[in-house]
Each structure stands twice: as C-alpha cells, then as structure tokens.
Amino acid sequence: MSVFSSSIRRIARFSMLALGVVFAGSIAAQSSDQLVAERMKPIGEVCLAGQACAGGAAPMVLAQAATAEFSAAAQYTQSCAMCHTPGVAGAPRLDNAAEWAARVAAKGRDTIVQNAITGINAMPPRGMCMTCTDENMAALVDYMLSQGQ
Ligand code: HEC
Predict the structure, then answer these.
(1) Residues having CB within 6 Å of any atom of ligand 1
(2) Which residues contact 68 (CB under 8 A, 6 or more apart)?
(3) What homologous superfamily is domain 72-148 in, according to CATH?
(4) What is the model's pTM?
(5) Where in the chain is the domain with CATH 1.10.760.10?
(6) What is the pLDDT of residue 62?
C-alpha cells in the first residue's frame, strides 16, 4: 500500500468523523427547537393531567405554570415553618401576635421585610429560600403578620 493511498484514507476517515459531529449537532438543535415550539403552544392546546397527550413535553408545560404561581401559605410551610412554627433559636412564632406587633412597632414592616431578605442574627438570608424573590419575601412577611393577628 502506498503512502499516498493511506493518507487519503486517513483524510477520508477524518472527514467522516467531522461530518458525524455536524450531523449530531443538527439533530440536537432540531430537537431543542421542537421543545421550544412545544413550550410555546397556547395554553388551550396543552393536555391536562389524566388526559391522553400527543406530545411528551406537554406535562412539563403544566408543571412550569404551576411552580410559577406563588403561594405565601405553601412557601411558608416549605421554607419558614421549620423555625417560625416552633420558634427555633428565638425566631418569632407564627402565632405570637404580640411579638410580631412589637417588631412592627419598633422597626416598621418594610425594615422587617428587608431583614428577612438579608438575614438577621440566627435568621438566614431569605430563610434559605433561594427561589424566593424580594416580592415573594414581602408576601411571606405579610402572610406571617396576618397569621399572628
Ligand atoms: C433557620 C431558622 C429560620 C428559618 C428557616 C427562617 N427564619 Fe425567619 N427568623 C429566624 C430567627 C432566629 C429570627 C429572629 C432574628 C432576630 O430578630 O434575632 C427570625 C426573624 C424573622 C423575621 C423578623 C425580622 C425582624 O427584623 O424582626 C421575619 C420577617 C422572618 N424571620 C421571616 C422569615 C421568612 C419569610 C422565612 C421563610 C422564607 C424565614 N423567616 C425562615 C429563623 C428562621
């Protein structure tokens, strides 16, 4: 076998490899486009849980819509209750109206919201709720204040 033909073969093998990479890349691009199209479907086309669904991505759309909606009561249970229901480490208890009233009187509601966001003493920043926005934290504080009354 001549040196010439073996190097031709090497080049051919290399270009097949390169072609394979490009091809795989285009499949990946296509399927993510489909996924985006699936997510952008109007809500009426999304099938509900329990119904037969044509597209596998549809239940994901519903799950995203569900998590986007913020519920202060549900988030309190998930992120704040572990300390604020029993009153761990000096945390004002949810049902301790007198302590909440004293805090509001001393600092004002907005400062209390800010302290909940940045953390204060044994209270960790955002109560360790990494997904809670500033607005979510304000809603949580208002929920806690309303429960104590
Ligand atoms: C690890 C326990 C812990 C968790 C979890 C926690 N807190 Fe607290 N929190 C505390 C403690 C302790 C204090 C009292 C801090 C102080 O005033 O010394 C406190 C105080 C507060 C205050 C009063 C702040 C002030 O300025 O008086 C608010 C409001 C508050 N927490 C909101 C929340 C919210 C909302 C969540 C859930 C997202 C949460 N906390 C989760 C421990 C916790």
Answers:
(1) 79-80, 82-84, 88-92, 103, 107, 112, 115-116, 120-124, 126-129, 132, 137, 140-141
(2) none
(3) Cytochrome c-like domain (1.10.760.10)
(4) 0.66
(5) 72-148
(6) 47
